[in-house]
Amino acid sequence: MSSQPATPSQTVGPFFRLGLDRPEWNDLTRDGPRGEKIVIEGRVLDGDGAPIDDAVLEIWQADAEGRYDHPDDGRPADPRFHGFGRALTDEAGRYRFVTIRPGRVAGRGGALEAPHVNLTIFARGLLKQLVTRIYFADEPSNDSDPVLSGIAEPAVRRTLLAGRQDGGAAYRFDVVLQGKGETAFFDL
Description:
The chain is mainly beta. The protein contains 3 helices and 11 strands; from the N terminus they run αββββββββααβββ. It is 7% helix and 29% strand. Strands 1, 2, 3, 4, 7, 8, 9, 10 and 11 form a 9-stranded mixed sheet that branches. A two-stranded antiparallel ribbon has the order 5-6.
């Protein structure tokens, strides 16, 4: 056993744009999957409301039938939809994904979860990535979702809801890293 101390945790650096900027990764519809095409867009903000201009956001979601492109799902997913996307924020903290509205998936004990998108945020100053979910405010099954209903405070629950913009196909979801209106993050 080495007597060397463990390497301490480091915050992620401003190298993301160099190694991870693949603009095509924010469009999950490029192969023509089945389902309702939507846009999820918003901003990433710090505790003072200032934009985070070098964050990386990654999404992972089910297809329109609620199937993941993963062998553990056990059901064949839409072969034209892989469910993973990545977007970087711009100087105003803005990000954008083009995707499809996911179907309901079975959670623990087989309980159906409301359609949602899993979101991971990497940013300067974070020792660990942050994990949350994006739900759709106009989705009737939100009331029975086991994850959402497990959050006691309505104001905290609302931080996970993306609102439809002007009745169109775009949903707005801002990520607030701390402070007033902080997005609910999961401890995984």
